[in-house]
Write a structure and sequence with these properties.
The chain is an alpha+beta fold and 279 residues long. Helix content is 14%, strand content 20%. It has a single domain, classed as paralog of FGE (formylglycine-generating enzyme) (Alpha-Beta Complex). It has 5 helices and 14 strands.
């Protein structure tokens, strides 16, 4: 883990590129105590060790299905129910962390990829077993910035400086044509791209990462500026970092200030987590 000393940093953004309804702004100084955070998202290999040790059955496995991006399914995959507002998400029977694209797929050769199809509750169970916890939203953003003040990305403000790819996102025309110009059509290994200034990999793109907090779009506009832990209750938990499906045409939430939320029992093929701990 990266050990981060107590600090005060500029959280959020007033940049118009953000989504007003998400509550990214205003930019404000937030103070944190020292903590540790993993340099990568939890991998399939690490999650498999947890399952072997505890017998944990994920919520996707209990439900019997999860959401998979249609572009990762074979052309002859049987028709399944799609999300009405996002037809690229398909309900796939037997999709889970063991079978990321459903029956016939597996994690062989992807031991160093981030585990996906895990709910917030699954992530918390992993943390309990490993003696860790999920980072707060503020801790996640401070770590993701890597000491870079006010920039859109861990490396600066340019999406692809000098034409180089620094993260795993959707390339081409979303959702039908993915050129995989960054090297990956789905998840990438957790160390695939260079780390930020604090030694963290893939905090932008690859997979969304669960945080500890309940999600409230207005919380940071009115909330505390010292050691914030989010609202006391809510319906959604915070997700951060964007994923391999983010694209400038519809989802620019691969920026370090971007935020979103999902129901704690939700599982998808682009949602994982990273752990933290007290020093």
């Amino acid at each position: 883990m990266a050990v981060l000393p107590a600090a005060t940093f500029l959280m959020g953004t007033a940049d118009s590129i953000g989504y007003p309804d998400d509550g990214e702004g205003p930019a404000r100084k937030v103070s944190l105590d020292a903590y540790m955070i993993d340099r990568t998202a939890v991998t399939n290999q690490a999650f498999a060790a947890f399952v072997e040790a505890t017998g944990h059955v994920t919520e996707a496995e209990q439900f019997g299905w999860s959401f998979v991006f249609a572009g990762l399914l074979p052309d002859d995959f049987p028709p399944t129910r799609a999300v009405a507002a996002a037809q690229w998400w398909r309900q796939v029977e037997a999709a889970s962390w063991r079978h990321p694209e459903g029956p016939g797929s597996g994690v062989e050769g992807r031991s160093d990829h981030p585990v996906v199809h895990v709910s917030w509750l699954d992530a918390v169970s992993y943390c309990t077993w490993s003696g860790t916890r999920l980072p707060t939203e503020a801790e996640w953003e401070y770590a993701a910035r890597g000491g870079n003040v006010g920039a859109a990305f861990p490396w600066g403000d340019e999406l692809e400086p000098d034409g180089e790819h620094h993260m795993n996102t959707f390339q081409g025309t979303f959702p039908g044509e993915n050129t995989a110009a960054d090297g990956y059509a789905g998840t990438a290994p957790v160390h695939a791209f260079a780390p930020n200034g604090f030694g963290l990999h893939n905090v932008s793109g690859n997979v969304w990462e669960w945080c500890a907090d309940w999600y409230d779009p207005g919380y940071y506009a009115r909330g505390p500026r010292a050691r914030p832990t989010g609202p006391e209750n809510g319906e959604h938990r915070v997700m951060r970092g964007g994923s391999y499906l983010c694209h400038i045409s519809y989802c620019r939430r691969y920026r370090v200030s971007a935020r979103s939320g999902n129901e704690p029992n939700s599982t998808t093929g682009n949602l994982g987590f990273r752990v933290a701990a007290d020093t």
